[in-house]
Design brief:
By secondary structure, the chain is mainly α. It has 13 helices and no strands. The relative contact order is 0.11.
Length: 202
């Protein structure tokens, strides 16, 4: 029962922090949403801020996933897997991504601590780009520029306002097709030989 209550509180906090923002969400609102006693937030988590970090702890992949992808020797295929993994995570944990963006863009009192969550992923992505360029698999000039452009490609779709989306007719594209198109777009932008890499992964 205790774990069930903790899960309900975590789920409610995730939804409300994403919808209303951390500052505008009260512990009472979280507990009403979760059907839990207000005192349980302090009992299980030690307060609202620690609850926020517990939400993030529960949402980010562990070292097992990184170890699996790091075991891929080919930097092109490794990059492809990182892009796929990020997009799958972003779809599954869209509320958490929204929370992080809000906190970082608003430069909250906590934003300098939140970098510990996404930073390992971006560091591994940077290292993969550098390794691929060193082996002649990517042909970009600036590692920083390539990295920032790739981050924009992965992050910006979640930030596009509805009035921009309204410019386009609805498309019946599966999420798997979106992943493949994003992989190809990024790899071509990096100057990778996508024909070779597609044959290798097919």
């Amino acid at each position: 029962m205790s774990e069930d209550v903790k899960t309900r509180i975590l789920d409610a906090a995730k939804r409300l922090f994403a919808d209303k923002g951390f500052e505008a969400t009260s512990v009472r609102q979280i507990c009403e949403e979760a059907g839990a006693n207000v005192a349980l937030v302090s009992y299980h988590f030690g307060g609202k801020e620690k609850l926020l970090f517990a939400v993030l702890d529960s949402a980010f992949p562990g070292q097992e996933l990184y170890a699996e992808i790091e075991g891929i020797a080919d930097p092109v295929e490794r990059l492809r897997r990182y892009v796929e993994g990020f997009m799958l995570w972003s779809q599954q944990e869209s509320d958490v991504q929204k929370i992080l963006m809000q906190e970082i863009m608003l430069k909250s009192d906590r934003h300098h601590l939140l970098g510990q969550y996404p930073l390992p992923f971006w560091q591994r992505l940077r290292d993969t780009l550098a390794e691929g360029r060193e082996h002649g698999l990517f042909s970009f000039q600036s590692l920083k520029a390539a990295m920032l452009q790739m981050m924009g490609t992965l992050l910006y779709p979640k930030m596009v306002p509805q009035f921009v989306l309204d410019l386009f007719d609805p498309e019946e594209v599966t999420f798997e097709e979106q992943i493949r198109e994003t992989q190809q777009y990024i790899l071509r932008g990096l100057g990778a030989n996508t024909t070779e890499s597609e044959r290798g992964s097919g």
